[in-house]
Design goal:
Two copies of one chain form a homodimer. Chain A has about 120 residues and is of the alpha+beta class. The first copy, chain A, is built from five helices and three strands, in the order ααβααββα. The first copy, chain A, has a three-stranded antiparallel beta sheet with strand order 1-3-2. The first copy, chain A, binds a DNA duplex (30 and 30 nucleotides) through helix 4.
DNA sequence: AAAGTATATAAGCATATAGTTATATACTTA
DNA sequence: TAAGTATATAACTATATGCTTATATACTTT
């Protein structure tokens, strides 16, 4: 369970900053949606490029950002590199988001009560 | 309840893009944390500037972004403008985030089962 | 081994972001 | 009303982001 603590909070902020940055681009966000809701359960660089109407290098760069932010995993298989969700890390990310919003809503509720 | 639908999904993506963009800056993210976990339940431009070590215009610009993204509300009171959480909109934001992660985890679980 | 395919990276460019200083506007108080 | 305080905005600058093209590397297939 995540607890409030100024040092810890700072660390969470840093993590969330990177996570939000990675997800704040429409191409990367859409890719995540496609991966999450479509039939594909993995995507290669070329596939992403085609699907999103991007050049191969552009797709490569986007996938690198998603991998660095621990949103996707990369697994080389022959000629291809397949990107899949980093389940474990995503659970962690979600916990941090829930913690942040939990704090926000606690404050909102408290404020409402005091009125 | 949010449902999968390509048109709707696109709309959510746009919303989430703006939300994540607003939260992908360390100063704005930290301010949200401070507001959520500290004693303050509202913040003025000057207070934010002081707390974050920013100039007044910088703080003003950050708060404008958080307001535009429907994370904060602004309420003028005399000389000051007090920014507070936009509770209703934040609930909406959180729903969209939960929907996105819900789809992701559903896909992750499905993949795990099939192995 | 040579050719083909997939990916990564380097270099460059256009635009976006985050800050600055200067200044205008709105409100309060002496 | 004049002075002081809070905020917003304009104009500018430096850096970051997202793309491009060119090219290198890794693997597969003929």
């Amino acid at each position: 369970m995540l607890r409030i603590n100024s040092e810890y909070t700072l660390e969470i902020s840093k993590d969330l900053e990177e996570l939000f940055k990675a997800l704040s681009n429409i191409n990367r966000l859409t890719l995540v949606y496609i991966l999450a809701t479509g039939e594909m359960e993995r995507v290669s660089v070329t596939e992403m490029a085609k699907k999103m109407g991007l050049t191969q290098p552009a797709a490569s760069q986007h996938l690198k950002i998603l991998k660095t932010a621990n949103i996707l995993n990369a697994k080389k298989q022959g000629n291809y590199i397949y990107y899949t969700f980093n389940h474990k890390a995503l659970i962690n990310h979600k916990e941090k988001i829930d913690f942040l919003f939990g704090c926000v809503f606690t404050k909102c509720d408290k404020r409402q009560k005091e009125e």
